[in-house]
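Record type: ASSEMBLY
Status: queued
Input:
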Amino acid sequence: MIKTVSSMKLGIVGKPNVGKTTLFNALTLGSEKTGNYPFTTIEGAEGIAYVKIRCVCSEIGVRDTPVNSVCREGWRFIPIKIVDTAGLVPDAWRGRGLGNQFLSKIMEADAWIHVIDLSGATDMEGNVGEPGEYDPLDDIKFIQRELRMWVRGILEKNYETVERDVKHRKTELGEALYKVLSGLAVRKEAIDNIIETLGLKDLSKLVENLDTFVERLLSEAKPMAIAGNKIDLPHSKENLDRLRSMGIDVHPISAVSEYFLKTLDREGKIRYIPGEPGFDILKPGELTGRERKALSIIREKIFGEWGGTGVQNLIDHVVLDMLGYIAVYPVKDINRLTDGEGRVLPDTYLVPKGTTLRELAYMIHSDLGERIKYGYVYGKTTRVSPDYVLRHRDIVSIQVY
Ligand SMILES: Nc1nc2c(ncn2[C@@H]2O[C@H](COP(=O)(O)OP(=O)(O)OP(=O)(O)O)[C@@H](O)[C@H]2O)c(=O)[nH]1
Ligand SMILES: [Mg+2]
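Status: finished
Output:
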């Protein structure tokens, strides 16, 4: 199953008040409401974030005219969907708090970003304390439990349907589970794999191993990155070291800094390319005293001590490393690198590693997929077959019958 650029979706989850919406706004440059109290977000929102790759334009030495993505100073930004949610509190799966309304919504996501307050300044319910007062490890444990309990609940609620299918309709167990788990956007093969590795031959074995099944299902179907937010606050570094020493992969970020930098960049006051370890002040005279002060704190604390805000790297890591996507540039004319209207390197597609040229052709248009004869890859002197496996940053043209 191939996801096109526009259908890939990441979901932001976490307890209240950790900075989920601030991260969402930083990624989308949106203006969803944030606040230093729990349950600021009630509705949730969907927006467009960008994956950043080194664009091929600068290496080839062409000026590109991007259409489906954005190119800035040799970096290509490719759009994906991102969803913000209300904070989850313990027992959200039972309907506590607001978060459970969103659980079904975020289950559609391809991967999750779990935001924690790395400084440990918020309790489990999102109430504000002092940095160092709470342990972010508790956040990680609790969210994983909530998500597992939610999936378990779906299975328990649908137990009779599965039983009826398996016993009376002679449906295969994987198929029956796939039907009731469709809201999770999980692949049938993933379910079959887990059934096979756990040796779940029948329903009674599944019931015995329900927790393990759910755990495997989630780790297989929903890769989760942990974003340790609020690194500008004290105690973040020691918490990060501790979590990492326990083998937990945490990505330190400062969502508020990224949002601030991107906003000033958009206003033309500074030049900031997301993910870069610095910024330039373009219009010092237009900065307010408050802005100047915040910039100097960010320069010293975020760039000086952490090397960056971590936000763009987090998104790139989730999509390119965890989900294993690569970016390719389909063009019509492989010599001029243009589409039918003469635009240079117009589109960038995110495709899973292992995607073939034929599969890409189908993604662009089913007709193109059916009619593909062979293709050209920029830099290769000979044609490639439709079974050619695409590589990251390939520029390709598809030739049809
Ligand atoms: N120091 C610091 N504060 C931050 C950072 N990111 C967000 N905050 C603050 O944390 C508080 C909560 O931010 P929100 O983005 O509303 O948090 P949320 O997780 O969406 O909260 P709910 O919607 O209530 O679940 C706000 O006061 C933000 O300004 C950060 O990187 N550093
Ligand atoms: Mg929020």
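Annotation: The radius of gyration is 23 Å.
Annotation: Residues 20-21, 40-41 surround magnesium ion (ligand 2) (CB under 6 Å).
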